[in-house]
Amino acid sequence: MTEGVPRYTAREAIALVTSGFTELPGPTSPVPANPADASDSSDPTRKFGPDGPLSWQGYDASRARAAARTGEEESVVCGTATIGGTATVLISFEFGFLGGSLGERTGDRLEAAYGYAREHRLPVVSLVATGGSRMQEGMRALVQLQRVARQSTLTREAGLPQIAVLRDPTTGGGWATLGAGADVVLALPGAQVGFAGSRVRPPDADPAAYTAEAQLAAGAVDAVVPPAELPGLLGLWLHLLSHPSAEPVPPPSALADTDLPATGWEAVGNARSPQRPRAAAYLDAYLDRRAEISGDRCGGTDDGMLCGFGVLKDGGRTVAYAAQTGTAARPAGYRTAARLIRLADRLRIPVLTLVDTPGAANDAEAERQGAGAAIADVFGAVAAARTPVTTLLIGEGGSGGALALAAPDNTWATPDSYFSVIAPELAAAILKRPPEEVHATADQLRIRPQDLVDLGVVRGIVEPPKPQP
Asked: Using CB atoms within 10 A as the burial measure, which of 233, 249, 344, 444 is most buried?
């Protein structure tokens, strides 16, 4: 156990997030409590003798001791609960039962729980604490990961959200399926999280790398949440992800009362002004009760790309958002945005993107991290989205790094923004023009908001909200 980190039982973890829980009945064709009596005619490989499929000496006795010690029949407890007003299927692992390991009977229960969720159109919340696959069942245990992955995939295809909460410890195949494979991944502080458990890591491995906090920094976890805050955040996520809508959202109103620029260079100055409202201000004005996702699931994060879901202040609908913050967007940010858009598309939640970047990061590290592929991923996610996407250009629109987030037929602009095929300074440099011609080059590029309307690149220019009488 990680020092000082509580290790909750399955029932204690359930009590953390809900006061009402109804356990689901066991699978319709469970393996009998006594393996010697097993006779599943539909699958001859399930006809095990004493001590399971490997005849592992003492396995039956170990199971009996685990059941007596924990009061559970298996390493997972499955049922239904209401969390924050949303009915859900709740899965909770019992680490005290053979290390929360996945065996064949665990697979039976998980498959039944996922099937119930699809039949009743319920989201799935998994409270994970596991050491991985059960050694005493050998490969029969390991292939349960394929079984779990299939159930998760079927549930994803059914348009139902999946949320994982990582407890201490979450390792092995449980992390690589139920945990990392969820749509939203939350973790308790200090929880041990990693594919390798503590006894199988290299002897010189840094233990700090196998923590919830390290996984958050590496882009594999969306948030580390103190236990007291978990019920509220879970309830918010379940609400946000369970309310689809077919209608596009309107673009936010402009937050600055700025006149349209007279020249291209004035448009650049307005967009680069330190006083110009940024993405956080637009999200605060537009949405209530936001929850953020974090990370690209490939080892990276980017503070310059805000992604998440919120409730539209005018109308109460759920909106997914991907918002640039004015910095040079990095590959991890683009991959996170693509993940956000695809999740929203699958759950039929409309998307708002806020464009504001001088351009994609083009340093050597960005190239090593796959900048081109990451930008292509966002272009593809926007192009393939069946859910409506609305875009507002709120500042700088620097080349393809900005255009990747823009909806082709539903992009709007604020008066203090510009969009350009390339920054005027770089255009002048490429054309071998002297610095004093940068301003004229900006005019030539026709990058003002009103130019963008004339060119058919944006639908219109948003105005500040009208004062209430």
From this structure: 344
Distance from chain centroid for Cα 48:
40
Structure tokens of 290? 């936001």
> Which pLDDT value is given to residue 469?
64
Alpha-carbon distance 413 to 16, whole Å? 45
First to last CA, the chain: 62
Res 38: pLDDT = 40
Q: Left, alpha or beta for 133 (phi > 0: left; psi -120 to 50: alpha)?
A: beta
The residue whose two tokens read 């594999």 is 220
CA distance 329 to 137: 48
What's the pLDDT tens digit per position in 119-165? Answer: 999 999 999 999 999 999 999 999 999 999 999 999 999 999 999 99
Q: At CB < 8 A and 24+ separation, what contacts does 269-275 make?
A: 270/415, 270/416, 270/417, 270/418, 271/395, 271/396, 271/416, 271/417, 271/418, 272/395, 272/396, 273/416
For the record, the structure tokens of 467 come out as 């004062």
Cβ 424 vs Cβ 264: under 8 Å: yes
What does the CA dihedral 406, 409, 412, 417 come to, rounded to 10 degrees? 50
The radius of gyration computed from the CA coordinates of the chain, to the nearest angstrom, equals 26
Return the minimum-mean-pLDDT range out of 10-14, 25-29, 290-294, 317-321. 25-29
* Residue 120 structure tokens: 């009743």
What one-letter code names the amino acid at 294? Answer: S
Cα–Cα distance between 384 and 379 in angstroms, integer? 9
pTM surpassing 0.90?
A: yes
* Of the candidates 71, 141, 144, the residue with the CA atom closest to the CA atom of residue 110: 144
Q: What percent of the chain has pLDDT over 70?
A: 94
What is the rounded CA–CA span in Å between residue 435 and residue 460? Answer: 32
pLDDT of residue 3: 64
**How does DSSP classify residue 211?**
B
Q: Can you tell me the distance from the alpha carbon of 319 to that of 238, in angstroms, rounded to the nearest whole number?
A: 13
pLDDT value at residue 35 = 40
